[in-house]
Amino acid sequence: MVISHDDNDHAGGLSTLAQAFPAASWWASFDPGARHAGPVQTCAAGVSGEWDGVSFQFLHPPTPDWAPPRQGGDHARSCGLLVGRGRASALLTGDIRSEEEAVLLDAYPTLKVGLLVAAHHGSQTSTSERWLKAVKPEWVAIQAGWRNRYGHPHAAVVRRLDAENLRWVNTATCGAIAWSSAQPSQVICEREKNRRYWRANDADGRGNSRENAGGNDSREKGDLAMID
Questions:
Q1: What angle do CA 182, 178, 45 make, to 5 degrees?
Q2: What angle is formed at CA 28 by the lines to CA 126 and CA 150, rounded to 5 degrees?
C-alpha cells in the first residue's frame, strides 16, 4: 500500500485501509502516526521490488529526509512510483510540481513511460512542457472530479498536452480508466465500456479527451493492469 503524501484527498482513508488490510506492506512519504499502528516504510528513490512478475521502483523523493528547494510542502515530497519498465510502464506522481519533475529528469534523463498519471490532478503547477517532451507517454491520465472547484485540469495543462500531440483522458468524463502493459497504446474508459441505456446514442458519451479509448482486456502474468 502506497500513500503518496499527507493531503486529505490522498491520505484521508488511511485508517480505514489499515484496518481492512492489516497484513499489507505500507509505504508513505510521511509518518502517519496513530492512523496506522504497524510499520510504515518511507518511500525514496532507488527502493524497488517485484510482485507477480511486475517491477516497482520509487523515483521520488530523492532521499527519505529530502526537503524541496523551496516551499512545496507535502506535495513536493509525494512518492513517485514507477510500475513496470519502458513503454510498458506507468508512472504515478502524486502531487509533485514542475520543480520536482525537473529533479526527476535530472536523475533519470532517459525516463520514458507508457502511462503518465498527471501530477496534482492537472494543476497548472505541474505537467510542464519539459516533462512531457522528455517522458513522451503513450497516454496521460488526469484524476479530476466532475466540475471540481479547482478547475482541474487547468486549461494551460490541456494546451501543453495537445501541443505535444499526446493522448489523454480525464476521470471526470471517462470514469474509471483501465490500462494494461500488454496493450500500452490503449486505455479503456469504464463510462464508455458500460454505457447507461440513456446514453446509448451519445456519440461522445465519454466526454473530453485527446482520442477515443478502447481495446480488449487481455493480459498474462507479468503484465501490469491499472484501474484508476
A1: 75
A2: 35
Report the C-alpha dihedral over residues 75, 224, 105, 144, rounded to 10 degrees: -40
218 pLDDT tier (thresholds 50, 70, 90): very low
Q: How confident is the model at residue 207 (pLDDT cuts 50, 70, 90)?
A: very low
Closest C-alpha to 158, from 113, 94, 209: 209
With H, G, I as helix, E, B as strand and everything else as coil, classify residue 66. Answer: coil
For residue 208, what is its C-alpha cell?
473530453
What number of CA atoms fall less than 13 Å from residue 207's CA on the CB side? Answer: 18
- The continuous run of DSSP H or E covering 81 comes out as strand 80-83
Pairing label, strands 54-60, 80-83: antiparallel
CA distance 172 to 157: 16
Q: Please give the angle made by the CA atoms of 209, 210 and 212, to the nearest 5 degrees.
A: 75
C-alpha grid cell, residue 199: 446514453
Q: Cα–Cα–Cα angle for 203, 209, 188, nearest 5°?
A: 80
User: How many Cβ atoms from other residues are within 10 Å of residue 151's Cβ?
Assistant: 12
Q: Rounded distance, CA 139 to CA 165, Å? A: 10
Instruction: For residue 93, give the C-alpha cell.
Output: 506522481
Q: How far apart are CA 43 and CA 30, in angstroms?
A: 9
Confidence of residue 219 (pLDDT cuts 50, 70, 90): very low
**107 phi, psi to nearest 5 deg:** -80, -30
